[in-house]
Amino acid sequence: MGLQSKLLLHSFSEIMRKNRWLSGYRIQRPQLLYESVFSKAVNEAKLLIERGDLNEAEKVLERALASYRALQDTAGEARAMTVRVNLLDAKGDLQGALDAVRQALSLADAHGLEHSSIANRLELGRLLIKSGSAVQ
């Protein structure tokens, strides 16, 4: 586990220690809190993309992806990878977006993540149409 991941997990432990006021359910199931923290990062990246702040979106998204990978959360990683596809498309890197969506689709299919699989198939279709590569 890399230094960034260790720091993130330490930060998460500090959040849990300092926030004893959270409901007993959340204290007993700390993964709910971390899911909330990282989901917010992915949502922040989406908003930054919409706002056109692509460099900041990339930083936020890469941190979220690294965290999901360190925690071996493939569902979270798949969600973040789908947002990465949108980021690459917004940057004008159509080939990069196509490569990323295929990678995200492969991850989703390999882990039985139905929602992510469907979302990535839709993204793949949209990008193929945009590239002119889709068979009509």
Give structural notes.
With 136 residues, the chain is mostly helical. Helix content is 82%, strand content 0%. The protein has seven helices and no strands. It has helices spanning 3-18, 24-28, 31-51, 54-70, 74-90, 94-110, 114-131. Helix 4 packs antiparallel against helix 5 (74-90), helix 5 packs parallel to helix 7 (114-131) and helix 6 packs antiparallel against helix 7. Residues 3-7 and 15-30 have low confidence and may be disordered.
Q: Kindly state the number of beta strands.
A: 0
**Residue-averaged pLDDT, rounded?**
79
Distance linking N and C termini: 46 Å
Which segments are poorly predicted (pLDDT under 50) over 5 or more consecutive residues? Answer: 3-7, 15-30
Question: Helix segment count?
Answer: 7
Strand content: under 5%
Which quaternary structure do these chains form? single chain
Radius of gyration from CA coordinates: 17 Å
Structural class given helices, strands, pairing? mainly alpha
Descriptive terms for the model:
136 residues, mainly alpha, globular, disordered N terminus
In short:
With 136 residues, this protein is mainly α. The protein is built from seven helices and no strands. The chain is globular and about 40 Å long.
Secondary-structure blueprint:
Blueprint: H1 3-18, H2 24-28, H3 31-51, H4 54-70, H5 74-90, H6 94-110, H7 114-131
Helix pairs in contact: 3-4, 3-5, 4-5, 5-6, 5-7, 6-7
